[in-house]
């Protein structure tokens, strides 16, 4: 079937849009936006409710009103004094940055190995990398804990990030795609200049891959900041707690079955959530890029 | 990129971190765990070999049956609903024109919320008496259930809550939709195909590879669901795990056996059983995909 035979009227009636954009009638667009406004409200409501309820006093915390009246900023002061929130925030930052930095650098090194060199067994090895992406983490939970226990580090923060020193499958895959996309000429030039492999990697490949490395960094920062299971397994001393682990303690103590001071739980939840919201607003395009690379 | 002498050595140098990590944190632990599953080990006394005792216990342990049932129940509801909702939202975003970016942000914000904060929020939002969700249902004349205390409604409540994180899958689908060649739609329109027919014959085949990928990944993740349910209903020294059994997911039980009861051998057997269950389900999905996934004739 040939598109040349298309009736002229049909092509004239449609507005000229870029090729990737779907052609949508104005009516469909209005309906779509309307449906999105409704679902968008449903998705945004819990977050607005969270902030609002964290500013309510105990008598009003269950009222589901969107505007707190009276506004109780005291909740934040109270929870700040009741638990070592600042310490937990600092711990979360340290663990998060360590996890993100190590994952970024090690995954870049490994990805470069897969992207730039041909060697026997490369496809098998890369298949193995992809296979570990599918491997259920629950299977290695116990033995890896026992390994850290054997070297005397099981109750430190090190197990929360140190595994990232060895590259992570998803990030290796992602960065390999970026390295493969680099023009071969830059590497040929480096070779003519007599640069070694390490030098070519550090001076030429890495600087060109900074956007992709930011993708890895923000993804891993978010993963480490929000993780609960590893802190539950490893951290015993409350001084070492990360924010989610601390928040679990707050939830148990002030929330369900505890002293029933939900406004404090919600204030702490807001404190734990806000940095991630900000991270997304500032790094949105990197998150989207990470999800849509294939 | 021609093969050169020295390339192989350099390649292994770059790959060495991953190889070391694979041996120490994946392959080694898996073999270690297989060995542990044949022992009784509480970290205080040395491990004693007990043969297949742990696997025998696992088959008769009523809690394993409950945990497996709960996990499959959650997965069977969560994965299809997530996929359909994500696809619907992605299609809407695709048609929203300039507003699309704003709504994409709104849909993604829940994905950024730490699961423990999510647990705290939804304990209140899902609360049978005061929660906003039942208040909304009340506007339409429905009396909502006690999502957080009624054993019959705890899992549906957790599924509902899990759908709040649909944003990442929706963003993946949005990108997949934009890769479907637009000429196909033009051609179909000229042939007078309805929007439904276009969706069924062009859109679905066009993104079937992406759907396949997200089904597999989300099934594997869903069978290991842990954090939200644990934060909401477990690990609280102040109250007994009163809703315990209806929210007892497989990995929660594994976690309790390993780190509360210190039954490392039994927990390892539980882990291997889960591994087999996940492998079988994934294999079935891969087989089914051969009939259902459309691949373009030219490889990318």
UniProtKB/TrEMBL annotation, chain A:
Family statement: Belongs to the binding-protein-dependent transport system permease family.
Bilayer topology: Multi-pass membrane protein
Database matches in SUPFAM superfamilies: MetI-like (SSF161098)
Main localization (coarse): membrane
Classification via Gene3D superfamilies: MetI-like
Highest taxon above the source species: Bacteria
Record key words, sorted: Cell membrane, Membrane, Transmembrane, Transmembrane helix, Transport
Presence of the UniProt keyword Cell membrane in the record: yes
Keyword Iron-sulfur applies: no
Domain ABC transmembrane type-1: 89-283
Stretches of the chain forming a coiled coil according to its record: none
Protein name: Binding-protein-dependent transport systems inner membrane component
Family matches, as InterPro entries: MetI-like, MetI-like_sf
Subcellular location: Cell membrane
Organism: Kibdelosporangium persicum
Residue ranges crossing the lipid bilayer per the database entry: 30-51, 85-112, 124-146, 158-179, 200-219, 264-283
UniProtKB/TrEMBL annotation, chain B:
Membrane topology type: Multi-pass membrane protein
Domain ABC transmembrane type-1, chain residue ranges per copy: 68-285
Main location: membrane
Keyword Transferase included in the entry's annotation: no
Membrane spanning residue stretches: 12-36, 72-93, 105-126, 157-178, 199-221, 264-284
PROSITE patterns membership: ABC_TM1
Top-level taxon of the source organism: Bacteria
InterPro entries for the chain: ABC_transporter_permease, MetI-like, MetI-like_sf
Keywords: Cell membrane, Membrane, Transmembrane, Transmembrane helix, Transport
Localization of this protein: Cell membrane
Family under the similarity heading: Belongs to the binding-protein-dependent transport system permease family.
Protein name (database record): Lactose transport system permease protein LacF
Source species of the chain: Kibdelosporangium persicum
């Amino acid at each position: 079937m040939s598109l040349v035979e298309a009736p002229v009227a049909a092509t004239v009636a449609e507005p000229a849009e870029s090729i990737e954009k779907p052609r949508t009638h104005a009516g469909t667009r209005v309906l779509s936006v309307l449906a999105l406004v409704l679902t968008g409200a449903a998705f945004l409501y819990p977050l607005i409710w969270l902030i609002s309820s964290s500013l309510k006093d105990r008598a009003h915390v269950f009222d589901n009103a969107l505007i707190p009246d009276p506004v109780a900023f005291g909740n934040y002061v109270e929870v700040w004094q009741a638990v070592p929130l600042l310490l937990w925030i600092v711990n979360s930052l340290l663990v998060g940055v360590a996890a993100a930095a190590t994952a970024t650098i090690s995954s870049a090194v490994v990805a470069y190995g897969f992207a730039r060199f041909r060697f026997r067994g490369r496809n098998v090895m890369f298949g193995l990398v992809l296979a570990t992406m599918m491997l259920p983490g629950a299977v290695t939970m116990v033995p890896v804990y026992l390994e850290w226990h054997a070297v005397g580090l099981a109750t430190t923060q090190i197990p929360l990030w140190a595994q990232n020193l060895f590259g992570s499958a998803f990030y290796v895959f992602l960065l390999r795609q970026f390295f493969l996309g680099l023009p071969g000429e830059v590497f040929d030039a480096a070779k003519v200049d007599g640069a070694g492999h390490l030098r070519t990697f550090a001076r030429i490949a890495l600087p060109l891959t900074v956007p992709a490395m930011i993708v890895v960094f923000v993804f891993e920062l978010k993963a480490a900041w929000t993780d609960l299971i590893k802190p539950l397994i490893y951290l015993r001393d409350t001084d070492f707690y990360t924010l989610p682990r601390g928040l679990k303690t707050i939830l148990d103590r002030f929330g369900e079955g505890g002293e029933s001071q939900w406004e404090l739980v919600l204030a702490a939840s807001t404190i734990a959530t806000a940095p991630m919201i900000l991270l997304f607003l500032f790094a949105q395009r990197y998150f989207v890029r990470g999800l849509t690379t294939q | 990129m021609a093969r050169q002498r020295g390339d192989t050595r350099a390649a292994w140098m770059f790959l060495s971190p991953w190889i070391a990590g694979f041996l120490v944190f994946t392959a080694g632990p898996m073999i270690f765990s297989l060995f542990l599953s044949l022992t009784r080990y509480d970290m205080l006394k040395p491990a004693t070999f007990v043969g297949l005792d742990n696997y025998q216990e696992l088959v008769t342990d009523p809690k394993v049956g409950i945990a497996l049932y709960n996990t499959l129940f959650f997965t069977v509801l969560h994965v299809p609903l997530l996929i359909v909702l994500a696809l619907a939202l992605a299609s809407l975003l695709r048609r929203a024109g300039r507003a699309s970016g704003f709504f994409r942000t709104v849909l993604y914000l829940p994905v950024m919320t730490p699961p423990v904060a999510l647990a705290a929020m939804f304990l209140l939002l899902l609360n049978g008496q005061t929660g906003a969700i039942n208040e909304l249902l009340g506007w339409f004349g429905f009396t909502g259930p006690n999502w957080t205390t009624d054993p019959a409604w705890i899992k549906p409540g957790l599924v509902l809550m899990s759908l709040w994180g649909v944003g990442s899958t929706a963003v993946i689908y949005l990108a997949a939709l934009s890769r479907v060649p637009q000429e196909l739609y033009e051609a179909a329109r000229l042939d007078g195909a309805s929007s439904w027919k276009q969706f069924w014959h062009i859109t679905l085949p066009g993104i079937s590879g992406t759907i396949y990928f997200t089904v597999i990944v989300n099934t594997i993740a869903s069978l290991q669901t842990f954090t939200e349910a644990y934060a909401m209903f477990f690990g609280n020294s102040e109250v007994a795990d009163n809703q315990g059994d209806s929210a007892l997911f497989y990995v929660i039980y594994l976690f309790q056996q390993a780190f509360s009861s210190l039954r490392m051998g039994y927990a390892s057997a539980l882990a291997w059983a889960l591994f087999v269950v996940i492998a079988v389900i994934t294999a079935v999905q891969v087989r089914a995909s051969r009939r259902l996934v459309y691949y373009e004739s030219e490889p990318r």
